[in-house]
Amino acid sequence: MKSPRAFSHVDTWVFDLDNTLYPHHVNLWQQVDARIGEFVCNWLNVSPAEARDIQKDYYRRFGTTMRGMMTLHGVRADDYLAYVHKIDHSPLEPNPALGEAIAGLSGRKLILTNGSVDHVDAVLARLGLATHFDGVFDIIAAGFEPKPAPQTYRKFLEDHAVDPARAAMFEDLARNLTVPHELGMTTVLVVPDGTKEVVREDWELEGRDAAHVDHVTDDLAGFLGRLSR
């Protein structure tokens, strides 16, 4: 059995945003999820139940519901993003322990997200982490091709001059770590801590035993703190 990749060589730390830099149980994404359902319902003029089925089908098939709506129904990305990210960010609280742990890592820290820069800015402001990252690669920078599309990771690596063999990727979805691992990155799956209810699809919580997952943690601040020490 192959040993999981380590971190001693890492000089670039890459983080997903939602359900990674804040705990799953905050359920902030549940608000976005509900807004997506409303958008699909209104755009396609279908019932909420039909919209829910379409939303989740596109999410699994295209990586994001937005990609499916753009591809199959001519939706403009700007309209979609403006609608679905109009949420209440107040459930997020400052996380100085995570900020200290991130600051202690040697090298660059980047965000790679299927969300928008505006959403990233709002989340980081609430968490008190806005000064801890050196760059953001969002869905617009990706040309609206979401993770786990291979070309999205390649564009991210090229745009930010990242050597994948010297990078680590932190994600809450195991499927989004497949390509990073194939490219040579050390991969970390961030999972719920089990103390509070989370609103996720079953498949979103699978994969912690997958070969492309090097490490699993339910405490990102503690995990990073141990690395920085």
From TrEMBL:
Q: Which UniProt keywords apply?
A: Hydrolase
Q: Which Gene3D superfamilies match?
A: 1.10.150.450, HAD superfamily/HAD-like
Alphabetized GO MF terms = hydrolase activity
Q: Which InterPro entries match?
A: HAD-like_sf (IPR036412), HAD-SF_hydro_IA (IPR006439), HAD_sf (IPR023214), Pyr-5-nucltdase (IPR010237)
Q: Which Pfam families match?
A: Hydrolase
Superkingdom assignment: Bacteria
Where is the chain membrane-spanning? Answer: none
Q: What is this protein called?
A: HAD-superfamily hydrolase
The organism encoding this protein is Bradyrhizobium cosmicum
Q: What is the lineage of its organism?
A: Bacteria, Pseudomonadati, Pseudomonadota, Alphaproteobacteria, Hyphomicrobiales
